[in-house]
């Protein structure tokens, strides 16, 4: 009986796979060991490759950190577009948005991004490069989402303010993971955030003016 051989992967496919393995290994180490201890040697060990192979794909640690940020932007964009918000105005929709953002920005994996931002502060030139790279990539990712949330707020300006406020709160809340808080703790504070945003929108009169049929998919 003949066995079917799997087609050999192309050089490009092998390159993409190895780079993905290295990026994921870097994310895990950043989230668990921190920026200072995420060395090229530790990354290579975590990924199961030689340091020579690592440097073949990413000549410097800086290049690998930028690749992590690129992958994070791709992941955030996919998750922002992955879930539909029920077509109803009010607190229920706001809570869905809050929960959805928490699943993106409140998870342990996202801490890798903060490790890079915080860890590069000692190198002013690299830190500025990281901030500019992050601002540009995330502007492209978040802009389509802001167009959607604008229907809930009634104005582009308020949409940006609400979105930034939710992110600031969620990112701050994510720090409580280091204090070993339980799931009920996070759920309670996410509910408070949704209540506050709903109250803010009701106070401005925007939620009452937003027809249910105009609320977009998130």
Indicate the percent of residues in helices: over 70%
* Total tally of structural domains: 2
Q: Main β-sheet, in a few words?
A: none
Mean pLDDT rating: 83
**For the CA atoms, what is the radius of gyration?**
21 Å
What is the ordering of alpha helices and beta strands?
A: HHHHHHHHHH
Top CATH class of the largest domain: Mainly Alpha
Uncertain segments are 207-218
Can you tell me the CATH topology of the largest domain?
Answer: Tetracycline Repressor, domain 2
Which strand-content bin applies to the residues?
A: under 5%
Tertiary shape: elongated
Terminal residue distance: 52 Å
Class per helix and strand makeup: mainly alpha
Total number of strands: 0
- The number of distinct helices, counting runs of at least 4 residues, comes to 10
**What would CATH call the architecture of the largest domain?**
Orthogonal Bundle
GO molecular function: DNA-binding transcription factor activity; transcription cis-regulatory region binding
Keywords: DNA-binding, Transcription, Transcription regulation
Protein name: TetR family transcriptional regulator
Organism: Neorhizobium alkalisoli
Descriptive overview:
- The chain is mainly alpha-helical and 218 residues long.
- It folds into two domains: 9-59, Orthogonal Bundle (Arc Repressor Mutant, subunit A); 69-214, Tetracycline Repressor, domain 2 (Orthogonal Bundle), CATH 1.10.357.
- It has ten helices and no strands.
- It has helices spanning 11-32, 40-47, 51-57, 61-80, 91-105, 111-119, 124-153, 156-174, 183-204, 206-209.
- Helix 1 (11-32) crosses helix 4 (61-80) and helix 4 packs parallel to helix 7.
- It starts with 10 loop residues before the first helix and ends in a 9-residue tail after the last helix.
């Amino acid at each position: 009986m003949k066995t079917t051989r799997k087609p050999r992967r192309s050089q490009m496919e092998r390159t993409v796979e190895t780079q993905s393995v290295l990026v994921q290994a870097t994310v895990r180490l950043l989230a668990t060991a921190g920026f200072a201890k995420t060395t090229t040697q530790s990354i290579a060990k975590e990924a199961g490759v030689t340091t020579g192979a690592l440097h073949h794909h990413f000549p410097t640690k800086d290049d690998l950190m930028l690749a992590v940020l690129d992958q994070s932007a791709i992941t955030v964009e996919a998750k922002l577009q992955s879930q539909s918000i029920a077509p109803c105005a009010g607190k229920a929709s706001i809570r869905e948005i809050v929960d959805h953002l928490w699943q993106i920005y409140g998870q342990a994996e996202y801490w890798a991004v903060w490790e890079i931002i915080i860890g590069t502060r000692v190198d002013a030139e690299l830190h500025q490069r990281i901030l500019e790279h992050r601002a540009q990539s995330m502007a492209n990712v978040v802009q389509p989402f802001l167009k959607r949330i604008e229907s809930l707020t009634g104005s582009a300006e308020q949409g940006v303010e609400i979105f930034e406020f939710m992110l600031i709160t969620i990112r701050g809340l994510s720090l409580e993971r280091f204090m070993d808080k339980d799931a009920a703790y996070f759920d309670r504070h996410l509910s408070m955030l949704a209540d506050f945003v709903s109250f803010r929108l009701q106070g401005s009169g925007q939620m009452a003016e937003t027809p249910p049929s105009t609320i977009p998919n998130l």
